[in-house]
Design brief:
The protein is α/β, with parallel strands linked by helices. The protein has two domains: 4-157 and 304-330, 3-Layer(aba) Sandwich (Rossmann fold), CATH 3.40.50; 160-302, 3-Layer(aba) Sandwich (Rossmann fold), CATH 3.40.50. Helices cover 42% and strands 17% of the residues. It has a six-stranded parallel beta sheet, sandwiched between helices. A six-stranded mixed beta sheet has the order 7-6-8-9-10-12, sandwiched between helices. Strand 9, helix 10 (285-292) and strand 10 (298-301) form a beta-alpha-beta unit. The chain binds beta-D-fucofuranose.
């Protein structure tokens, strides 16, 4: 933890390094510096306010509705009203951009670095640099695979493996209810970004249940990058290639939307009473509506509202209080029978 004096000095310096490139960008000549101030008007009071905690946030991209909700959650948590100055960088799906952003946060001497690592591997050196600079790093959403866990301070996110298990168990129950537990079940899997914790965990969890059923056949497991467009393309291709597909396991809702469109375009009916059953993850509002309509069989929730949890950890560190190294957030699954009561309150 750094002294107030240091923070005051640093806040003044930081506001200069943040604001100057921002002003240049407005004039069309700033290039690499990516500060999202769309929700923050930079007023002179910001410049004078030296008590704010400076948090550098490296978001991995904006590929999904989940990700947008996650970014909004961070913006709510790290607001000026809550005592924070947030420097936000969108890495646009590139690990090298995330590394650049983190190094830039280190050179600006921020108080905390918060980031969602696009993939698990490859973070040792940059995290070592943050540690050497004495800047706590709080991971959210996805994890990192490092030899030394002291390279990060804490992690907040979902139990992705458990999400995969829930998906598999729902499929068991569903097939049983249809009297199809013994039939051959032909499955395709739409996976998200290669090497991401959410992909690794959901795959591992689902496979744990899959292994118990010899009659469940995975025809293909493809990378559709967590996006609607890629999933639509892949789903169309697979529908042409395989004479019958019974189940699509789609590792996020955005890909599910693409798969549903592709299925319909092929003249088939997606849904629990249709030709192809869909299993999805995230549980964003538009997908919950599709659960209610019977188009998606189950949507396994993944909670993007992580800002408050990260903020609580920072506050504990600031106050010298204990905090958990790993925090798993609460989640449930949604099916047609019970989803109705949850749709209206969904804010994303
Ligand atoms: O499910 C997906 C997103 O890592 C949990 O990333 C996250 C996943 C989420 O883009 O929609």
């Amino acid at each position: 933890m750094k002294s107030i004096f240091f923070r005051k000095w640093k806040a003044r310096y930081l506001l200069m390094v943040v604001l100057i490139p921002f002003m240049l960008a407005i004039n069309g000549c700033g290039r690499d510096f990516n500060v999202d101030l769309s929700n923050e008007s930079v007023e002179s009071s910001d410049i004078r306010d030296e008590s704010l905690i400076v948090v550098g946030v490296s978001q991995l991209g904006s590929e999904s509705v989940w990700r947008t909700a996650n970014t909004a959650s961070l913006q709510r948590a790290f607001s000026k009203e809550n005592g924070y100055f947030m420097i936000f960088d969108n890495a646009r799906q590139k690990q090298e951009n995330q590394m650049k952003a983190i190094r830039s946060f280190i050179s600006q001497n921020v108080d905390y670095i918060v980031f969602s690592p696009i993939m698990e591997e490859g973070w040792d050196s940059v995290l070592q640099e943050a540690k050497d600079a004495g800047i706590p790093v709080i991971l959210m959403d996805r994890k990192v695979k490092v030899s030394d866990t002291s390279l990060y301070t804490a992690w907040v996110g979902s139990d992705f493996k458990e999400e995969g298990v829930k998906a598999g168990k729902w499929l068991e129950k569903f097939l049983e209810s249809k009297g199809r537990l013994e039939d051959e079940v032909r499955i395709v899997v739409l996976q998200g970004t290669e090497g991401a914790s959410s992909v690794l965990g959901r795959t591992e969890g689902f496979n744990e249940i899959l292994r118990k059923h010899e009659n469940w056949k995975v025809l293909e497991c493809v990378n559709a990058e967590y996006t609607t467009a890629k999933a639509m393309e892949e789903m169309k291709r697979m529908l042409k290639k395989h004479e019958r597909i019974d189940v699509v396991v789609s590792q996020n809702d955005d890909m599910t939307f693409g798969a549903v469109d592709a299925i319909r375009q092929e003249g088939l009916t997606p849904g629990i009473d249709g030709d192809i059953v869909l299993i999805s993850f995230d549980a964003v509002k538009a997908a919950l509506q599709m659960v209610q309509d019977g188009v998606i069989g189950v949507d396994v929730e993944c909670n993007p509202d992580l800002g408050g949890y990260v903020q609580a950890i920072i506050e504990a560190i600031e106050n010298g209080e204990p905090y958990e190294k790993h925090t798993y957030v609460e989640e449930r699954s949604f099916t047609k029978e019970m989803v109705g009561q949850y749709i209206e309150d969904r804010i994303y």
